[in-house]
Amino acid sequence: MKQWFREIGIPLLDWPPYSPDLNPIEHIWFHLKKKVLELHLELEFANGKSEEDLEALENALVEGWNALPNSLFESLVRSMPKRVNACYKAKGWHTKY
User: Is 41:64 a contact under the CB 8 Å cutoff?
Assistant: First the structure.
């Protein structure tokens, strides 16, 4: 694959195996946690050891996910060209994303 990229003139960077800057789901986790705690503050103090705690967390995650606005997902998708460009300019290092 790398040879094919070189042959057609696509420059390659040494890229870290995991780049949160290029992974919009990392931002979704932040918003999901915030929404779950907004809707179910009591979960912050649950220890997760009982079946009831785990069931409450699962239900809260589903509720929180469903409460996230579509505009959040759309804005993250629209930001991908900027993210890729920023990563390219930073030569794979951290960016503002």
Answer: no
pTM above the 0.85 mark?
no
Inform me whether the pLDDT recorded for 14 exceeds 80. Answer: no
What's the gap between Cα 27 and its chain centre?
4
Q: Is residue 97 part of a domain?
A: yes
Closest to 69 in 3D by CA, of 23, 25, 24, 28 = 28
Of residues 71, 54, 61, the one with CA closest to residue 32: 61
Query: For the chain, how many structural domains are there in total?
Result: 1
What residues make up the domain containing 68? 28-97
Cα 23 to the center of its chain, rounded Å: 5
Separation between Cα atoms, residue 81 and residue 79, nearest integer Å: 6
